[in-house]
């Protein structure tokens, strides 16, 4: 497609268009540019991305989307056709989204797309939706923290919700692999930066709101406002949109008074809002690997034996069920589909052993998620809970002592260690975290995560449950700006072998 035609089809105003060229693909990383590519110069805080125009041109790029007059001049100097959309935040994001939507043929216009936002539960909920859709005979893809999963395979991705160019490219990849539906996590960062511009959602799911990412958003009010955008944005699309809100969460309950929605309730919740529909999930039995749930919706009832465990997963199963109803599936068919799902990797994932104690690996990395995780473990009546956790570097420092308090209040033994220290001093992170430990409870602080896991396994006795929290499915640890191989599940297996 010619650049000038592509700009015309995008339907958004450009400040200037210089030259023309046949565009074969769109990229935002100059290092992977190919002959015929349009290179999108994403605005950045650390460096001017226009400085990579030359590299993109050397690799065969024929055109560029730039965000300043200086960038336009640089593109012209390097021999690239170019379109200028001055960086004004939301306008820039809308332009990139519209350009990608036009180029990739707007696949979400015909796909059924479920977007899941919230502090905790996004990954599990989206994963369950995708698995249930497969069970219902609708080939589906998943996109989020775990990566991109399509009907023919799965691969890792860099961000929970990729930037616009990558996101649209991945959705095209999913459709090429045979997906007719998509369940995707939508992070607060992505909503704030409007990375999902050009994506048409059929259903938006809200799980909950607790403290996280205040290093980015600044306040809980700003954090909530970012999440809310998922439910405000559908005004820009043409297909019908259904909101699914967890009304057991105060923010979800408040939003249910503002948005027409399917309300999801798993326990105490406000009375249904007039005009909204209410899905009620009643847990009859909860074990380490199974939920027995009863469902009530619009006067009908059904039941499911969902093959995931832990009390906090009742909410995740219920919001996933709400998404299926939002897509138009009946209660009975949806309940049957929920019996055929598989748990998300690294979410309440058991590591089998023959020592008589349980070991669970989970991604919980916020105070609220850790509280819910450990409460779910306590409900299984273990002899003791031994918890290993850490806090990430270059992230919200205020949640560190809160994480420690959540762990030590609910554990018999707490081991504080490193998560992904990134560019911070791991010892300094531990000191911030230790401030929240409850006095009088047994605790240990070990910087090396491998040693910390080994200590926890060595302390465990029959009837105990060891919880390794914070990294879940991740198979790396970030120290400085480098990813080093590390998988909590492998650390556990190694520790088990070493204590024989």
Brief summary:
With 500 residues, the protein is an alpha/beta fold. The radius of gyration is 24 Å and the shape is globular.
Protein architecture, described:
The protein is of the alpha/beta class and 500 residues long. It has 3 domains: 3-103, MurE/MurF, N-terminal domain (Udp-n-acetylmuramoylalanyl-d-glutamate--2,6- Diaminopimelate Ligase, Chain: A, domain 1); 106-338, UDP-N-acetylmuramoyl-L-alanine:D-glutamate ligase; 349-498, Mur ligase, C-terminal domain (Protein-Tyrosine Phosphatase, Chain A, Alpha-Beta Complex), CATH 3.90.190. 34% of the residues lie in helices and 23% in strands. The chain has 17 helices and 24 strands. The strands form 4 sheets. An 11-stranded mixed beta sheet has the order 9-8-7-10-6-11-12-13-14-15-16, with helices on both faces. β14 and β15 form a beta hairpin. α4 (90-104) runs parallel beside α6, α5 packs across α11 (312-326) and α14 (399-410) crosses α15. The chain is globular and about 70 Å long. The chain starts with a helix and ends with a helix. The mean pLDDT is 93.
What keywords describe this structure?
single chain, 500 residues, UDP-N-acetylmuramoyl-L-alanine:D-glutamate ligase, Protein-Tyrosine Phosphatase, Chain A, 3 domains, 11-stranded mixed sheet, 24 strands, 23% strand, globular
Topology at a glance:
Layout: H1 3-10, E1 16-18, E2 25-27, E3 37-40, H2 53-58, E4 63-66, H3 69-78, E5 81-84, H4 90-104, E6 112-117, H5 122-135, E7 140-144, E8 147-150, E9 153-155, H6 164-176, E10 181-185, H7 188-192, E11 203-206, H8 214-217, H9 220-232, E12 242-246, H10 250-255, E13 261-265, E14 277-286, E15 291-297, E16 300-306, H11 312-326, H12 331-338, E17 349-350, E18 358-362, H13 367-378, E19 385-391, H14 399-410, E20 413-418, H15 426-434, E21 442-445, H16 449-459, E22 465-469, E23 476-479, E24 482-485, H17 488-498
